[in-house]
Amino acid sequence: DVPGDKRLVAYVVPAPGTDGTALPALVRTTVGARLPDYMVPSAVVALDALPLTSNGKLDRRALPVPDYGVASAGRAARTEQEELLCGVFSEVLGVPAVGPEDDFFVSGGHSLLAVRLISRIRSVLGIELSLRTLFEAPTPAALARHLDPGALVRPPVVAAGQRPGRVPLSFAQQRLWFLSQLEGPSATYNIPVALRLTGDLDRVALDAALLDLIGRHEVLRTVFPAHGTGAHQQVLPVDRAALDRIGFGLTVTDTTEAELAEAVARAAGHTFDLSAEVPVRASLFVLAPQEHVLVVTVHHIAGDGWSMAPLGRDLSAAYAARVAGGAPGWAPLPVQYADYTLWQRGLLGGEGSQSELLEQQLKYWREELAGSPEELALPFDRSRPAVASHRGGSVDLAVPADLHARLADLAREQGATMFMVLQAALGVLLSRLGAGEDVPVGTPVAGRTD
Fold first, then answer.
1. Based on the number of CB atoms within 10 Å of its own CB, is 105 exposed (0-12), middle (13-18) or buried (19 or more)?
2. Separation between Cα atoms, residue 217 and residue 335, nearest integer Å
3. Which of 54, 144, 297, 405 is disulfide-compatible with 81, CB 3.0–4.6 A?
4. 26 within 8 A of 12, measured Cβ to Cβ
5. If DSSP codes are grouped into helix, strand and coil, which group holds residue 75?
6. Residue 75, class by beta-carbon neighbours within 10 Å (0-12 exposed, 13-18 middle, 19+ buried)?
């Protein structure tokens, strides 16, 4: 019902002759005893019969919208904290009201909304909570008993009133800048997107839309000049002449279908000079008057996989506005990446910060990883190269349906996810191949809390 707000809903039909009134609660209780919380449906809807198409298949479009309901007929809030939490629950869930004893997950909540709820509680009550606490105490009344006014609260990310003369790099940018210095010019951390465009294309409007895009997002027009032993962020002005001098703009090349793959690979493999070149490039390949391929390449120092959706939306909106003879009517963004960087440095510690949080977190990981093997003693089929090539291969593996079913059963029995089961199997395999009993396995995560 809300773009980007995905929810798991169960539609059930009671057995003939049975009362379906209590069925939704029974389904949630039964499923919740066997599956992790995130796999329990946000809503269970009882139907007289499942709607079918003329072909006898499930008609998904005819399924009714779930009614997550309003506050239960229970008691009223007894404390100010309960009242505030009821209001926050109601706001995040998008329902008219929530009572103190109403369960967040029964009322339509799920893990993504849970993250939003924690952030909102931080803003409204000024108190820090963990996601685990919400899962253990999912009602306003239960959660109120876990509120600790003395807990460390993360300040909100807001626009910096006055930026320093040299804005430092975020810790993620610092890692990528260091790797660029270590490896030299490389396309290892490029994020390319290629789109085939069919129909009329206004190249002037597209070039103007790209300028609109980097005007809206400072990080796309940021260079990273070195100073001393590090680098800083330098945001360039939205000036066509200045950008032309550093080579930013839409490059247009005529090509053929036979040459297209190689041309796209060259555009995607561009090596950015982070000290003097903005971290985004756009190349347009012309196959025919109404057949084009657009390649937009962003260096990881300015974006990631999650950045591609807003980038695409903004570029599309800007192009549509330019084709119509206008400019995108954007409101200024509340924060830019440089603001986030200053917030992060102030919170965790770094240049000009009195915080010890970063050192506490580093101390934790130093202790957890103490004695970890630098390299696993595995039977390689070739020696490790002196310089990493970043070239790899993939091996297809078919998992039979019956094996998958047994894995799923095992995960349910152990209260684990399929991922956890497969990671355990990987650890066992590596150990049997000679890696010993201490097997570190890296897992990429994306923990967006703000």
1. buried
2. 10
3. 144
4. no
5. coil
6. exposed
